[in-house]
Predict the structure.
Amino acid sequence: MSLKSVFAALLALSPAALLDPALAQDAMQEPGITFQSTELAPGLYMLEGVGGFAGGNLGLLFGEDGAVLIDDGLPPLTDELLEAIGKLTKEPIEFLVNTHVHGDHIGGNEAFGEAGATIVAHDKLRERLAAEGMTTATGQAPAPEDALPVVTFSDSVTFHLNGRSAYVFHVERAHTDGDAVIHFRNDNVIHAGDVLFHSLFPFIDLDSGGSVKGFLAAQKRILALADESTKIIPGHGELAGKADLAAAIAMLEDSLARVRTLVEAGKTEAEILAANPLADYHDDWNWGFITTERMTKTLVRELTE
């Protein structure tokens, strides 16, 4: 099943289902969901769900100093994730890095925290979890203590493990207000989190501190770190490269310019939607969660609020 069709199925519940593992569990957890691994460098892997929606793409670095996991997917699939990790390394997960606050990326925090992993994230992520809690099938609930990051940073932090360095840095008001990007400098690999949706209109969570302006700035910062050989793990979609990121930037910049022209002409949201300024991108970038219409609404809101 393709990524676009899986997300389309989630909309049968609600748009929030993508971010809410409790509400989306029944729709997402089809029999046979597993995690496949792609080696990006010795001891460095991308993990992605196959057979259904398993949450965002993960990163895994391991060696004699232990293992570092980037994001942890959805809680119903923690056992499947651990099984996949166990096929690659017997080292325990010493550190868990969260790229942002959404449940499809940090739904397994409690399980890994209970198992002894040190959870690391941006200050804003912990603040949001502590203040807003986590969404469950019955509503908001306080985030369990084991799910909270115990090491936070405001700007950046660098891991020096297994003979490598992993530079974790904050990108301001991008997908959310607490996004982290991880640059494995020795290996020319970048985990972009949801700052990159590969060949999909991006979800820019304006209600969680994200912004289109910040999203583009974050993408350009990643682009400046990349060369033609860089491997980029997107939050969703297939493994990407510099050209894929450049295409995403070009699409979003042009889309923003098209909508800005209509906003500056005094058009209402309804009139802008009727004009369909993103029609040229529909066939290649539209998908079930962020449709062409919803992307247009996000851009209008960015430009008018």
Confidence is low (pLDDT under 50) at residues 5-23. Residues 126 and 300 are 30 Å apart (CA to CA).
